[in-house]
Write a structure and sequence with these properties.
Elements (H helix, E strand, L loop, with lengths): L1 E6 L8 E6 L8 E11 L1 H8 L14 E8 L11 E4 L9 E5 L4 E2 L6 H6 L1 H14 L7 E4 L5 H13 L2 E6 L2 H10 L3 E4 L3 H8 L5 E6 L6 H6 L1 E9 L13 H5 L4 E3 L10 H16 L7 E6 L3 H9 L6 E5 L1
């Protein structure tokens, strides 16, 4: 038996409850992983609330790190005792979770379990956003929303290492300091940010906006772009963006809009390992600092979701079984 978080219906954080259930058994091609820590992400709140449809009862969580306990039939390349992480696990808010062998990421020596759990989703997201969705070059100027969040703090560091000029938005003085410490060139509040971006760029606008906030920032993000700039809408922390007229892209300067998701940037094992190996190596050698803003016991998953949705957190939020 094991403890796991279970939601029996869609709703607010209060639908998440600790329950005792049978430990899963790995099927063909799967690993059984003893979870050291599970990542808490906005996609988990979308599934819990019903924005994304799931089957109930439902245990959230796709991101975790831990130790391999058992191998399913046909698994190669792993042994019991190996440390792995994943952004594509199954029901990870639990003491044990199943991970498909081809989606398990080896954790290098020198990287602790908590940092390993904090990196797969947000680290890989940051990697594909700046390397593949819009390939950032040294002369680019970037607007990044939520610069003190888990993805934001990683992206600021990666963008500055690339040589980009980084403008970011935050909501509090504490978050502003975190963004500045990560290397942001300019840190703005959300109110009136589009006009301030225009001022900072002498009226030109930025090459790309990375927007994980969604509804509350979408219009300002479009207004911040240069001619032929790209809005990368990779999340909706404030809610989904309402339908809009594509003619706005023309009127704004032949703009580009894309709505990426991680699965489309992890098409095969080679791509998965390229992204994870680079991110893990940077964290292991200290060139990428991973901020774990909060760690909650597994039983406090509801509080973790509430704090995340109310923007009380900074950096990465983890659950510890």
């Amino acid at each position: 038996m094991m403890h796991a978080i279970v939601a029996r219906e869609a709703g607010g954080p209060g639908v998440l409850n600790l329950a005792e259930m049978e430990r899963p058994v790995p099927g063909p091609g799967q690993l059984l992983v003893k979870v050291a820590a599970a990542g808490v992400n906005f996609i988990d709140t979308y599934k819990r609330s019903g924005v994304y449809k799931v089957q109930y009862p439902f245990t959230p969580g796709s991101e975790a790190a831990g130790t391999v306990m058992e191998l399913g039939q046909g698994v190669t390349g792993f042994s019991p005792g190996d440390r792995v992480a994943t952004a594509e696990g199954i029901n990870c808010y639990a003491g044990y979770a199943l991970v498909d062998g081809d989606k398990a990421l080896p954790v290098p020596h020198g990287l602790d379990d908590f940092t390993a759990a904090a990196l797969p989703l947000q680290g890989v997201t940051a990697h594909y956003l700046i390397n593949s969705t819009f390939k950032v070059e040294p002369d680019h100027t970037v607007l990044l929303h939520a610069g003190a969040g888990g993805v934001g703090l990683l992206m600021i560091q990666l963008l500055k290492a690339r040589g980009a000029h980084v403008i970011t938005t935050v909501s509090t003085d504490e978050k502003e300091q975190l963004a500045r410490d990560a290397g942001a060139d300019h840190v703005l509040r959300y109110d009136g940010f589009a006009d301030k971006v225009r001022d900072l760029t002498s009226g030109t606008g930025v090459d790309v906006v990375y927007d994980g906030v969604g509804k509350d920032t979408f219009d300002g993000s479009l207004a911040s772009l240069r001619v032929r700039g790209m809005l990368v809408l990779f999340g909706g922390a404030s809610g989904p963006v309402p339908p809009f007229d594509p003619q706005r892209l023309n009127a704004g300067g032949s703009l580009f809009l894309t709505r990426p998701s991680m699965g489309h940037y992890l098409r095969d094992g080679q791509e998965r390992r390229w992204r994870s190996d680079e991110i893990f190596a940077a964290a292991a050698d200290g060139s990428l600092t991973v901020r774990i803003g909060a760690r909650y016991p597994l039983a406090e998953a509801a509080q973790a979701h509430d704090d995340l949705e109310q923007r009380r957190t900074t950096g990465k939020v983890l659950l510890v079984p």
